[in-house]
TrEMBL record:
The keyword Nucleotidyltransferase does not apply. The chain crosses the membrane at residues 47-66, 136-163, 175-197, 218-236, 242-261, 273-294, 314-345, 357-383, 395-415. Belongs to the TRAP transporter large permease family. Residues 8-417 form the TRAP C4-dicarboxylate transport system permease DctM subunit domain. This is TRAP transporter large permease protein. InterPro entries: DctM, TRAP_DctM.
């Protein structure tokens, strides 16, 4: 009953227009005060400090900085031009190129919002010029943009690891095959749309010399994901060290090789990265204040009692949690959902014998769906702001892709080996 009251209070506070991070903190502090009185205010500073005092979390601002450097340097455009040289002549070639570029960009940015924003700038105009339907274009870019949090390095996976102490390397490995599979599913949908006359015209076929020249140009950027991810997998450095190496490499290729970035641009890059980092850390702090209250109420134990009372099997628990996460994802930020829900669910997963690595991927895919589902759906509003079209148009275009993502989520539930094969290899 208390949890229901907290949820209602949270919805009312968020409906008032207060930023999510502040709203979480207000509800958490209010609930703590009702339970513990004024003494609650004494412990909250320690809770906030503990929530961000993590070496692993240092990787988050570094990955954001790396992403911002590459975005400002126009690397996404270089990658898109390269992919279109190879695939643009195929049926639905520009759409397929957008998906493939998003998948490559996901291995660089670690953020779905940044990934979708870059692709909306780079891919949407040429797709519409070649006759692609606007709604289809925006829906495809939104859906493929969500690959940013599934294909490593994924910022939400880093946060999951920070909360649960699970291996970052295993979490990243678990996202690889599902990420590639989802990209192939989206590409297949584009090709089918093209063959049935619902897609735009293909590009002229590029010559081999054009392909090789553009690939050589993109080669420096394409080396970055193997350096970062490979370094983590093979134990050369930690996730935080990998992020630092990624920032250094991004600076080198942007300033010295592509020369699309100037020293004068670095101040703006640092400011934008700082703003994004502060937003994430504020969300973590607000979520941890509320999470502290939820932990004090022993919700995990109550949930286990409920499961035992109804004799709920593991698969039933998974389906129930997927439904709950989808609802939460529609009204809260991904980071907020992670920090509120994961500390509650993790002990239950261990008790029920559910692999946390597998569940983490299901969690992330569920959040991908949330990113393109109203009313919060951050990716929807980012694309709307960039293309300057009504949000209703973007929402209409994304609906078929939401259906595809749900089918993909159930596929991962039914076939756990798609997620667990690589983590098992690196065990």
């Amino acid at each position: 009953m208390i949890i229901l009251a907290i949820i209602i209070a949270l919805l009312l506070v968020l409906a008032s227009g207060i930023p999510v991070a502040i709203g979480l903190g207000i509800v958490g502090l209010g609930a703590a005060w009702l339970m513990d009185g004024s003494s609650a205010f004494m412990t909250m500073p320690q809770t906030i400090y503990a929530s961000t005092n993590s070496f692993l979390l240092t990787a988050v601002p570094l990955f954001i900085l790396m992403s911002e450097i590459l975005r400002r340097a126009g690397v996404t455009e270089i990658l898109f031009d390269t992919v279109t040289k190879w695939l643009g002549h195929l049926p639905g070639g520009l759409g397929v190129s957008a998906v493939v570029t998003s998948a490559i960009g996901a291995s660089i940015t670690g953020s779905s919002v940044a990934n979708a924003a870059s692709m909306a700038i780079v891919a949407a105009p040429p797709m519409i010029e070649r006759g692609y339907d606007r709604k289809f274009t925006y829906g495809l870019i939104a859906a493929s943009g969500t690959l940013g949090i599934l294909i490593p390095p994924s910022i939400p996976m880093l946060l999951f690891a920070a909360i649960t102490d699970e291996s970052v390397g295993k979490l990243f490995a678990a996202g690889m095959i599902p990420g590639i599979l989802l990209a192939l599913i989206l590409c297949g949908y584009v090709v089918i749309s093209a063959l049935t006359g619902r897609s735009g015209a293909a590009l002229p076929k590029a010559s081999w010399s054009e392909r090789l020249a553009q690939t050589r140009k993109a080669g420096f950027a394409l080396v970055l994901p193997p350096i970062v991810i490979g370094g983590i997998y093979f134990g050369f450095f930690t996730a935080t060290e990998a992020a630092g190496v990624g920032v250094l490499y991004a600076l080198i290729i942007s300033l010295l090789i592509y020369r699309t970035l100037r020293i004068a641009d670095l101040l703006g890059i640092l400011i934008d990265s700082l703003q994004a980092t502060c937003m994430i850390l504020l969300l973590i702090a607000g979520s941890m204040i509320l999470g502290h209250v939820v932990t004090t109420l022993q919700v995990s134990q109550d949930l286990m009692v409920l499961i035992q009372a109804y004799d709920l099997p593991a698969w039933g628990f998974i389906l129930a949690m997927m439904a709950m996460l989808f609802i939460l994802g529609c009204i809260l930020e991904v980071i907020s959902v992670i920090y509120i829900v994961v500390p509650i669910l993790y002990p239950v997963l261990i008790t029920l014998g559910i692999d946390p690595i597998w569940f983490a991927v299901l969690f992330i895919v569920n959040m991908e769906i949330a990113l393109i589902t109203p009313p919060v759906g951050m990716v929807l509003y980012v694309i709307t702001g960039i293309v300057q079209r009504p949000v209703s148009e973007v929402i209409a275009g994304v609906l078929p892709f939401v259906g595809l993502l749900f089918i993909f989520l159930f596929l991962l539930i039914l076939v756990p080996s798609l997620t667990m094969t690589l983590p098992t290899i690196i065990n």
